[in-house]
Structures are given as structure tokens and as C-alpha cells.
Amino acid sequence: MSEDFVLELEHIRKEYPGVVALKDVTLQLRRGEILGLIGENGAGKSTLIKCCSGAVIPTSGKIKINGKEFDRMTPQLAAENGIAIIYQEFNNVKELSAAENMFLGRPIRKGITIDRKAMEAEAAKAFEQLRIKINPRELVKNLSVGYQQMIEIAKAVQQNAQVLIMDEPSAPLTNNEVESMFAVVELLRKKGVSIIYISHRLEEIFRLSDRIEVIRDGEYVDTLITPEATVDQLIRMMVGREMTQKFPPRPCCVDESKVVLELRDVCGNGDKNMSFKIHAGEVLGLGGLVGAGRTELAQVIFGAKPKDSGQILLNGKEINPKSPREAIDLGIAMLPEDRKRHGALLGVSIKNNINMPIYKRISKASVIDLGTEKGNAEKFRKEIQIKCPTINQQVKNLSGGNQQKVILGKWLAADSQLIIFDEPTRGIDVGAKYEIYKLINDLVAQGRAVLMISSEMEELIGMSDRIIVLAERQMTGELQKDQFDADTIMTLASAIVDQKEVS
Ligand SMILES: Nc1ncnc2c1ncn2[C@@H]1O[C@H](COP(=O)(O)OP(=O)(O)O)[C@@H](O)[C@H]1O
Ligand SMILES: [Mg+2]
Asked: Domains, the chain, ranges and CATH?
């Protein structure tokens, strides 16, 4: 007897110009189960589940819902057949109320007028079923991301969805919101809804799922029963190699004779008395707790915030960048923590992003040298292996890891001497992390200097040549490689600073 599958994807292939996003991927969702779908950034998870809703039309392959075959899915067909998807970027209308959003595109009508009361009552019913407290009349713009997501889930419930697909639902949520979301997911499971849960956070997958499907580089790898799977095994399946080594080896490249950056008693942006040097070929780790003043320090060096006193020297010459623009021209680059907001222009092409800091240099009389522009982009695309069909692709269509690479390519093109990374691997999965670490190694091997802010202890210790710890906007310690130790760093990070000692 064949098993009871509510949703089946068979031999799905999706080609984009220049990229095969999916090759022969299969997925089977059993009735009533939670299937975890995992894979690295760019593996094809989102593309695969978009095939279920008709948001993406597969190049070939079949989709079956309750055994019924569809060779072409449309959003309407998907909804009619009980499939609901909560996308990574959910598309709600901020100016409308919770209830209006739930009935977006399919309002309840009384005659020819829209029956607001009925919609509000229905919304209230769905919220109650999920035990979430939202006023149906509240405008979505006044609700937190967690509640906005709940509205999307409630919409699926109201439509009696049999299958709920959630694409990285925990990514935009706070810890508390994640717990509430889990509670709702559990509740839906009890109601018999079948769920596909996408995440790159393995602990969530272990907690929620019955089975786990792994895909890698657009290909199906395997499906495991959750209690039988181990973290190591899953990571190996996701990245396709042994992960005994979290940090790529780096031959020592620190050149003590060449100081790239020096701070002498720098105060500004709330930070006090910062004094240290970074050498060519060195990764200086900046440790400390949130609020210790690490990002603030980076902003001063990068010219984003003014310095009150002290001196900053780049290659032995005092500099006073008044803006990031000036800092970039001087050879300083920064990869900010919040890439989406500050790092790359998502709506423009890879080519434009990479050339952004150097358009002045590659233009004559305001005319851009198109050959150089293209050459530059192709060069860095190859050098740092940005996975994309063409350099004309918009950055927003790339995975997080690849977006990070584009930003890096931009700074490499600008020939930066000092590169500041603020939490370089936050929100990036294991395999992509390794790639970023390799890039950092390449940068220092070329004689550049790196300042790396990191809250991940392992990363700080694994990647730094030297570590400086901040607490309460001051330096509380400096550790050489043989002194690296998590406890020591934590103690320094929570130190109450004695004014006399540091000044
Ligand atoms: N609209 C698109 N045009 C071109 N390539 C795309 C598009 N959407 C996704 N891709 C490519 O398909 C691959 C899979 O992407 P995606 O499904 O978003 O991965 P995941 O969700 O696993 O991170 C990536 O290489 C990505 O760049
Ligand atoms: Mg995705």
C-alpha cells in the first residue's frame, strides 16, 4: 500500500538563465507530520516551496496534492487545494487592519459592499483558535513582526489549509516571539495540519520536526527520521564534506613591522580612550557584550560618527574621515552587521554594487568605462565565488551568504587596506560561514588588516590573531593568541572599568 502523502513534489527542476536552481528534487509530505527542510543558503529551499504555490513555475517535474497530479500550479489552485505558504518576506499591507490583511484579495461581501464586521468576526475566531491576542481592527503597521507573522498563520487557518509551509519563520523573530510561534505550530500539528518547516537553525528542526529533508546545491540529498539524525550528520549532508574543521587554516601572515591602523587615545561616539594597533596581515578580534561600544568604535574609524579627541593613523598618517565616503577613499571598508539595511543596494545589480565605491575612479568626464566596470565585477565574482547567473542579477535575489560576498567584492574592488567586519557571520549557516572565514583569510594573506567584531566566542577565538575586549565603552584587556580563553574573555567583557587603570 502506498503511503499517505498529502503533498508530493517529483523530479522538480528549475532553471534560471545561467543557473540551475533545482535539479531533480523530490519531496514527500506525510499527512499530519512536520517535515523539516534544510540546506545551506542558496541550496534551493525557497525556490522548491515556491513551486508548490505556483509562485515559481518549475521547468519540469510534477506536483501531487492528495494524490492528484498537477503539471502547472497557480496560487489560486494551491489555495483551493489547501496549500498555504508563509514566505520569508511576507507580503502584508501595513496600512490595513489585521482583519483586512487576512482577507486580502478575497473580502467577505454583503451584496456589493464589503462586510467589515463579518471579516473582523472571522479574524477574531481564527486568532482565538490559535490563542493569540490581536485586535482584528489593529493596523498591521502597529504590530510587531511576530504578530504580523501570526496574521499570516491565522489566514492559513481561516482558509482551512491542510498544508502549511513556513520559510525560515524564526529568522525575523525575537526569542519570545519564536516561542509563541512554536506554540502555534504545535497547536496546528495537533489539529492535523501537515507542515513543512524551513530553517537553518538545527535546534529548531530537532525540536519540531518528525522527519528532515536535506537539499544541497539544488539537489536532493536524503530524508532522515528526526530522532535518528545527529547534528554532525546533518551538517555533513548540508555542506557535503566533513566539518571537523570549523575554521580554515591560516598560515601566519601578521607583519609586525607594518602598522595599518593605529588609534591613540581615541574618544568619540560614547567610547573612551581607545588605543591599539592593527598590523598588515592581522585579524584583530573585538570582543565584548552587546552595548560595550564595539560598533560605535567601528563607526568612528569609518567616519560615520565624529571623533571627540585622540588620533587615528592609517599607514602612519593621521586621518580624520568625516564621512564613510572619505573613509572609503582612504582605504577603509566596513561590512556592517545589518547587511540588508546598510551593506548592499538590494535593488541594483551585482555589477553596480561591486563598482559602487570606485565609479569616480573608473569614469572619465562623467562617462563610466563600461569595460572596466564589467571586468571588475567579473573578476571579483570569480575570485570570491559569488554564486549567480550573471553580474546583472539584482542582489536581492541572492542568498545571504552571497550578498555578503558581493559587499566584500565591493570593498576589494576599492582596494581597501583595512576591512572592518561587524558580526560577519550572523544569520549565515555553517557552510557559508566557512566561506566567509576563508575570505577573511584571503584578505589578510594579501596584507590587508581586518578588524572583526564578533559576539560568537568560538569565532572570536578561532579567527583572531589578537583580541581586544571592551566593556562599558572602554578597553578592558588585550589578549595574545596563547592567552585566548573563553572565561578570560567573558571576565574582561563584564569587567567594571576602573578609570585610573585604563587611562
Ligand atoms: N529569481 C531568480 N532569478 C535567478 N536566480 C534565482 C532566482 N531566485 C533564486 N535564484 C537562485 O537559485 C538558487 C536557490 O535560491 P533559493 O531557493 O533562494 O535558496 P535558499 O532558499 O535555499 O537559500 C540560488 O543560487 C539563487 O541565486
Ligand atoms: Mg530561502
From this structure: 5-239 (3.40.50.300), 255-373+384-502 (3.40.50.300)
pTM (2 d.p.): 0.61
pLDDT digits (tens, 9 = 90+) for 114-161: 899 999 999 999 999 888 899 999 999 999 888 999 999 999 888 889
- What integer pLDDT is reported at residue 330 of this predicted model? 92
> Ligand 1: which of 15, 16, 429 to mutate, most ligand atoms within 8 Å of CB?
16
pLDDT digits (tens, 9 = 90+) for 376-421: 888 888 887 888 888 888 888 887 778 878 888 887 777 889 999 9
- Ligand 1 pocket: which of 19, 166, 350 to mutate (most atoms within 8 A of CB): 19
Residue 502 burial class via C-beta count within 10 angstroms: exposed 0-12, middle 13-18, buried 19 and up: middle
Nearest CA to ligand 1 atom 2: 397
Task: Say if CB 96 and CB 139 are below 8 A apart.
Answer: yes
* Residue 1: band (very low, low, confident or very high) from pLDDT cuts 50, 70, 90: very low
| Ligand positioned closest to the Cα atom of 38 | 1
Pairing of strands 255-268, 271-280: antiparallel
167 CA: nearest ligand 1 atom = 21
Q: Whose CA is nearest to atom 11 of ligand 1?
A: 21
Q: What is the mean pLDDT of the chain?
A: 88
Residues in the chain: 503
| pLDDT score of 499 more than 70 | no
Candidates 12, 20, 47: which one to mutate for ligand 1, based on the most atoms within 8 Å of Cβ? 47
Cβ atoms within 10 Å of 417's Cβ, excluding its own: 17
Alpha carbon distance 127, 376 (integer Å): 53
Atom 9 in ligand 1: residue holding the nearest Cα: 397
Please tell me the distance between residue 204's alpha carbon and the centre of ligand 1 in angstroms.
Answer: 23
Residue 431, SS3 per DSSP:
helix
47 Cα: distance to centroid of ligand 1 (angstroms): 6
Helices (H) and strands (E) in the chain, counts: 17, 24
Inter-residue contact 156 to 101 (CB < 8 Å):
no
2 vs 30, 67, 196, CA distance in Å? Answer: 11, 10, 21
pLDDT of 43 above 80: yes
Residue range 297-340, pLDDT digits in tens: 999 999 999 999 999 999 999 999 999 989 988 999 888 776 55
Pocket of ligand 1 (CB under 6 A): 16, 19, 21, 39, 41-47, 387-389, 397-399
